[in-house]
Amino acid sequence: MAPQDWLIGYLQGTLSVSFKWAPFKFKPTFLIVPSLEANGALFFFFETDRQEGEEFVTPNVNRDLMYTAKLYLIVTL
Fold first, then answer.
1. Where are the chain's structural domains?
2. What percent of the chain has pLDDT over 90?
3. 29 CB-near residues (< 8 Å, 6+ apart)
Protein backbone atom coordinates (compact mmCIF):
# COMPACT_ATOMS: atom_id res chain seq x y z
CA MET A 1 0.00 0.00 0.00
CA ALA A 2 2.77 2.48 0.87
CA PRO A 3 5.67 3.12 -1.51
CA GLN A 4 8.96 1.34 -0.80
CA ASP A 5 10.85 2.79 2.23
CA TRP A 6 7.72 4.66 3.40
CA LEU A 7 5.40 3.92 6.32
CA ILE A 8 1.92 5.14 7.18
CA GLY A 9 1.53 7.34 10.28
CA TYR A 10 -1.66 7.99 12.21
CA LEU A 11 -2.65 10.80 14.61
CA GLN A 12 -5.94 10.88 16.50
CA GLY A 13 -7.57 13.35 18.87
CA THR A 14 -10.80 13.95 20.78
CA LEU A 15 -12.24 17.11 22.32
CA SER A 16 -15.30 17.02 24.61
CA VAL A 17 -17.14 19.91 26.27
CA SER A 18 -20.20 19.65 28.51
CA PHE A 19 -21.72 21.21 31.62
CA LYS A 20 -24.69 20.73 33.93
CA TRP A 21 -27.30 23.41 34.49
CA ALA A 22 -30.09 23.29 37.09
CA PRO A 23 -32.73 25.85 36.03
CA PHE A 24 -34.87 25.27 39.16
CA LYS A 25 -33.75 24.96 42.79
CA PHE A 26 -36.51 22.70 44.16
CA LYS A 27 -37.16 18.94 44.21
CA PRO A 28 -37.42 17.10 41.90
CA THR A 29 -34.38 18.78 40.35
CA PHE A 30 -34.07 18.95 36.58
CA LEU A 31 -30.55 19.00 35.20
CA ILE A 32 -29.99 20.06 31.60
CA VAL A 33 -26.68 18.81 30.17
CA PRO A 34 -25.58 20.02 26.72
CA SER A 35 -22.58 18.15 25.32
CA LEU A 36 -20.34 18.69 22.26
CA GLU A 37 -17.73 16.22 21.06
CA ALA A 38 -15.32 16.34 18.11
CA ASN A 39 -13.06 13.49 16.95
CA GLY A 40 -10.41 13.65 14.27
CA ALA A 41 -7.84 11.45 12.60
CA LEU A 42 -5.00 12.15 10.18
CA PHE A 43 -3.23 9.50 8.11
CA PHE A 44 0.08 10.37 6.44
CA PHE A 45 3.13 8.79 4.80
CA PHE A 46 6.66 9.26 6.13
CA GLU A 47 9.94 8.11 4.63
CA THR A 48 12.11 5.69 6.65
CA ASP A 49 15.27 5.94 4.52
CA ARG A 50 16.10 9.64 4.20
CA GLN A 51 19.40 11.01 2.91
CA GLU A 52 21.41 13.62 4.88
CA GLY A 53 20.06 17.13 4.19
CA GLU A 54 16.95 15.84 2.43
CA GLU A 55 13.76 17.75 3.22
CA PHE A 56 11.36 15.99 5.61
CA VAL A 57 8.10 15.44 3.70
CA THR A 58 4.92 13.83 5.04
CA PRO A 59 2.20 13.76 2.37
CA ASN A 60 -1.35 13.51 3.74
CA VAL A 61 -3.37 10.45 2.81
CA ASN A 62 -6.67 11.12 4.54
CA ARG A 63 -8.28 13.43 7.12
CA ASP A 64 -11.42 12.55 9.06
CA LEU A 65 -13.49 14.81 11.31
CA MET A 66 -16.59 13.64 13.18
CA TYR A 67 -18.67 15.66 15.60
CA THR A 68 -21.66 15.10 17.89
CA ALA A 69 -24.01 17.43 19.76
CA LYS A 70 -26.24 15.99 22.51
CA LEU A 71 -28.71 17.37 25.03
CA TYR A 72 -29.57 15.34 28.15
CA LEU A 73 -32.39 15.92 30.64
CA ILE A 74 -31.73 14.34 34.05
CA VAL A 75 -34.38 14.25 36.79
CA THR A 76 -33.10 13.69 40.34
CA LEU A 77 -35.63 12.70 42.96
1. 6-76
2. 49
3. 22, 75, 76
